[in-house]
Design a protein that fits this description.
824 residues; alpha/beta; Rossmann fold; four-stranded mixed beta sheet
Length: 824
């Protein structure tokens, strides 16, 4: 059999895996190992969103695009979730259950009075602020009260986390918890309208702001009752907030010892009870300290029963490797009680008795500022396939506490681990986390919701690397921000999106990656536009466009100019780079954004037709109007009208320049007339004298208006031979149908005025001179004609435009082979 064309029976594959066109068998895909097969390149993930009345298209390649939402793509009105949908969402938002043995659930001891009081206040629609020190059991009390209030409000109970969240985050989080509006971020008006009719019990843990920000949150939700949990160092609410204050103190000595016995799962000995009493006095009865102290006693029991219990993890390093433990050692081993200092700060001692994977997880958490990656990422970060079980070990020891849908280090654990040396390699571990998240967040199979769930760890990894001293640290931060920011935008977590963009922009500046820095500036401008900060959006977009213009990034610059045009349209001002109504120009004239489908045209300077009035406003100089009428006439031309006027001016200028070249070539090629003939002659074609026409009438019968024609001063100075030389610019630029006039002296030292005469439409132009005037009079200044736009005619029936020789070639006037001059 031909090895290239294997039959379908080989290796048990049927005809569906055989491709005749390719001449070879397609690789079969195992459903259990889908990632091991050959995969096609994935496309960039582009997500359309609705932000207010704007259509935001998240584009991770060239930058997000924003435009007014078309009428057919307006999102439907948000609908309220049903109780079943709210329950499903709450279960999905809960912290994941750690793998391994179930974590012991601690009872709520000595909190009945606080629980009943909170329930009464919430039932009356009052909002309460529960204040207690870190580790006092605020989260456990909130969970119990939330269960009691499940049927209290029409929209149920909404659990929110205030950890690193702003007021806008909480308002949008409350809206999303009650209403179903996928891929829709309402504007401020619609958001407040929906929240004013929302009636729910909002349980908010880890509140980090107070004062006016807290007042804004309460004023936006008048039908909601809030149960807020905060530490004493958080700012107090405003005097008009009408919040009830409930302070949470520590447990008494009996309840503390009871809690420790529940953790150890046995009665305490006399020595252990005395040690617990000293610990209660030291920790002021904080429940978290007794949970961790109970974990220390549990580890002590395990070591007393089996001294080799932790040998597999390498904890007992003082034991020689080749010396096996004796059986009597396992019975007679006596592990002393921890000291009072170790009981008050037990994180280092607890971590030293955990597995290698658990200790590595602690080091990664310290590197991320206390944020613990999701358990699904631990095997890749630690390098152990069973590293996800480390989360259960840490939670059972009281080293972790829930924060929204994830875990973080418990209160005080971060400082204790840093003092123990767990943060010595924080930079290297943060770089490892950043590289992992950069690959993971940019993978097309990862949904934006999963990236949002890891947003705190992602932002913490970037912040650890900027500014960085190690080689390539800022570049890794740029890569992570570039991969994660589009997913954060698509997941509607815009505060994390903004933080990642700002960190990425700073990292790109430090690393010298101008293209990436321009991308972050563009995204910041789009974000500011969507949130209504137009001045900030204009500054960011102009910076991005200028940087991309220097890099010749055409597609990125086009996306920036479109967004900038929308900013100018919403701000009501002129397009950036155009001429303002006052005659001033903006800093960057290259940022003119034309309407869709029209090319961008930069205005050009045109020659003046009148001494006091410019024909076309130039972007290099500002026009000065003589009165209000002229200033109104030179107001800004906006949008498509401005572009069409500029385009017409350019076409007209091109025609004028072509005529100039033609005149120069024609004047150089025509033979000169009789030098003895005086300039005070009327030249006609074929010796026939034509009847004179008025000076303002053109050869084609059209009368130019005062606004489209004008004159510039010119004079002829007599030379030694009696011939005048025209000044530069006095002639040599004319349009079809224009007349030319020049002055010639009638006597030495005298002057004469020249009367223009019309030319024939089918022959060369006719030029006449007027009789000399009073020698003592001053010759009037004659003006060169201004090019006007010719009337469109049929090119097949119209004679070619007349040509006028340059007056600088000969001062004796134009002459041809058949011209018969006559002296008047």
């Amino acid at each position: 059999m031909d090895p290239t064309h294997r039959g379908p029976e080989e290796y048990g594959h049927d005809g569906s895996d055989f491709t005749e066109e390719a001449g070879r068998r397609r690789p079969s895909r195992d459903p259990l190992t889908p990632d091991f097969g050959q995969q096609t390149p994935q496309q960039a993930r582009i997500v359309p969103l609705i932000s207010g009345d704007l259509l935001l298209t998240v584009n991770p390649v060239d930058g997000s695009e924003v435009e007014p939402c078309p009428p057919g793509e307006q999102p439907p009105a948000p609908v309220r979730r049903t109780p079943e949908e709210r329950a499903d969402r709450e279960r999905a938002a809960a912290p994941p259950v750690p793998p391994g043995p179930p974590v012991l659930q601690m009872p709520l001891l000595q909190r009945e009075d606080e629980r009943e009081r909170l329930m009464r206040l919430l039932a009356r629609g009052r909002s309460v602020r529960l204040t207690g020190p870190a580790g006092s059991g605020r989260t456990a009390l909130l969970n119990a009260v939330a269960a009691d209030c499940a049927e209290l409000a029409p929209d149920g109970v909404v659990r929110l986390s205030g950890h690193k969240r702003t007021v806008a985050d909480l308002l949008h989080g409350l809206f999303e918890a009650v209403h179903d509006a996928p891929l829709h971020r309402p504007d401020r008006e619609l958001l407040l309208e929906k929240l004013r009719t929302t009636g729910a019990v909002v349980v908010l843990d880890d509140l980090e702001f107070g004062g006016t920000a807290l007042d804004e949150l309460l004023d936006a939700t008048p039908e909601c009752a809030f149960l807020l949990a905060a530490t004493p160092d958080v700012a107090a609410p405003g005097p008009d907030s009408h919040l009830e204050e409930v302070f949470l103190a520590g447990l008494d000595r009996g309840a503390s010892i009871d809690l420790m016995e529940r953790v150890v799962e046995r009665k305490l000995t006399e020595d252990e009870a005395n040690w617990a009493g000293d610990l209660w006095f030291e920790s002021e009865g904080l429940p978290l300290r007794f949970v961790q102290a109970g974990a220390l006693l549990r580890q002590r029991d395990l070591l007393s029963t089996d001294p080799t219990a932790y040998d597999e993890y390498g904890y007992l390093e003082n034991r020689p490797v080749d010396e096996p433990p004796r059986a009597e050692e396992a019975v007679e081993a006596d592990v002393p009680l921890p000291s009072l200092g170790e009981g008050a700060a037990p994180a280092a001692l607890l971590g030293s008795r955990l597995s290698v994977a658990a200790r590595d997880t602690l080091r990664f958490a310290v590197a991320l500022g206390g944020e613990v990656p999701h358990q699904a990422h631990l095997p890749a970060l630690v390098g152990d396939t069973h590293a996800d079980a480390a989360l259960g070990e840490l939670a059972g020891c009281g080293l972790l506490s829930p924060a929204g849908s994830r875990y973080r280090l418990a209160a005080g654990v971060l400082a204790q681990l840093e003092a123990a040396g767990y943060g010595d390699d924080a930079t290297d571990r943060a770089r490892t986390v950043a590289q992992h998240y950069a690959w993971w967040a940019g993978h097309p199979s990862v949904t934006p919701a999963r990236v949002v769930a890891e947003s705190d760890a992602i932002v913490a990894a970037m912040a650890q690397l900027v500014p960085g001293d190690g080689a390539g640290q800022t570049s890794v931060a740029v890569l992570l921000a570039r991969s994660a920011s589009p997913a954060l935008a698509a997941g509607l977590h815009w505060s994390a999106w903004e933080r990642s963009l700002r960190i990425g922009q700073e990292a790109g500046r430090i690393a010298g990656e101008v293209a990436e820095e321009a991308y972050f500036h563009h995204e910041l401008g789009v974000l500011a536009l969507c949130t209504g900060h137009l001045d900030r959006a204009r500054a960011e977009l102009e910076t991005s466009i200028s940087m991309r213009g220097a890099l010749a990034d055409k597609s990125g610059a086009v996306a920036g100019r479109r967004a900038l045009a929308l900013v100018e349209d919403r701000s009501g001002g002129p397009a950036s780079g155009g001429v303002l109504a006052t005659g001033e120009t903006t800093a960057n004239p290259l940022l003119v954004s034309p309407p869709r489908g029209l090319p961008a045209v930069i205005p050009v300077s045109m020659p003046r037709t009148y001494p006091d009035e410019p024909a076309v406003v130039s972007r290099q100089s500002a026009p000065k109007a003589a009165d209000a009428g002229e200033s109104g006439r030179f107001a800004v031309l906006g949008g498509a009208r401005r572009n069409f006027v500029a385009a017409g001016a350019g076409v007209l200028l091109a025609g004028v320049l072509g005529t100039v070249v033609t005149l120069g070539l024609t004047s150089n090629s025509e033979p000169q007339g009789d030098p003895g003939v005086s300039t005070e002659q009327s030249v006609t074609e074929g010796g026939d004298t034509e009847e004179e026409l008025p000076a303002e009438e053109t050869t084609d019968g059209a009368t130019p208006s005062a606004e489209t024609s004008g004159s510039a001063p010119s004079s002829a100075t007599p030379g030694p031979s009696g011939s005048g030389s025209a000044p530069a610019g006095g002639s040599g630029a004319s349009s079809p149908g224009a007349t030319v006039s020049e002055s010639a002296p009638s006597s030495p030292g005298g002057s004469s005025s020249v009367e223009p005469s019309p030319t024939r439409t089918t022959s060369k132009p006719t030029k006449t001179t007027s009789p000399p005037t009073d020698p003592t009079s001053t010759p009037p200044e004659t003006e060169s004609p201004t090019p006007t736009e010719p009337t469109p005619t049929d090119p097949e029936t119209t004679d070619p435009a007349p040509t006028v020789p340059d007056s600088s070639d000969s001062a004796s006037g134009p002459s041809g082979a058949d011209a018969s001059p006559s002296v008047t």
